[in-house]
TrEMBL record:
It comes from Alicycliphilus denitrificans. Residues 14-53 form the FecR N-terminal domain. Pfam families: DUF4880 (PF16220), FecR (PF04773). This is DUF4880 domain-containing protein. PANTHER family: PERIPLASMIC SIGNAL SENSOR AND SIGMA FACTOR ACTIVATOR FECR-RELATED, PROTEIN FECR.
Amino acid sequence: MTAGTGVPPEVARSAIQWWLLQQDGDMPEPQRRAWQAWRAADALHEQAWQRIVSVNERLAGLAQPQQAAIARAALAPRGPARRRSVVQTLAVLAFGAGVAWQVERRTPWRNWVADVRTARGERRRLVLEDGTQLVLNGATALDVGYGPRLRRLRLLEGEVLVTTAPDSRRPARPFIVQTAAGEAQALGTRFAVRALDGGGSRVAVFEGAVRLTPGQAAGDALVLQAGQQATLRAEGVSALQLAYEDSTAWTEGMLVARGMPLADMLAALQPYSAARLVCAPEVAQLRVSGTYPLDDVPRVLAALDALPGLRVRSLTRWWGRQEVVAEAAPR
């Protein structure tokens, strides 16, 4: 637990993310319900949210011109640089310098100020100016850059399902999803890109084709066809694997596991869990199959706990962070 506020950094991070989403304008009803569910899920969540509300009210009530200008910036941030400064100030005022530092260390600021973001437990659909359709998974951040010669998405974290639309301009502009590992160029297609821990990206193609270009090995570009997936890393592309259509079930709130390694399954659940999900090395490759509701992670974890040889337990670390650990059951 954090001295001074009693709010763990992970909770503070989520609270500020929800505040940022509200600054973007009227929240869609599904997003508002997700925000309300997050507040109701834990007393610490509500405590963190009320601290932000309190800070905003204090800022809005300041009378001195200089302070009032700061207040207006905090309540209506515009632009990445300005928003970053405001969020830093808000984090310090609401939760103290110690928590603010941990929040910043765990979340790159470019993710906070991304053009499009989702919070944990939230999914979002949107249509871009050319008709391209996106579905964002939970805890996703991306920038949208449409210019005269190129259509580009920059995936900062999380996962996105893309259904590209033909470009009305002539010559047609390429459509590219850029990640930390390289680029995925759509060749008239429907595909998903997921940012992985360690800087890699998983790309799965369901219609058309996608050209993968590693960031540090452009000569090793590879074209994925429909039904194929691969991991893109800066130094190259992994061996091809089958891509199943039901791997997009997350867009409808479900997780379909086909002999999925337990470590991968917990990673897929993480965008829907406030607690950190940890997989012990000795069970990381345990294969799991079934269909699971993403919006009820405790229920999924209870089902995993019932598997032979597996134990799932919750821990509270000394600094207040919640963790759920999947490990081998004691004999």
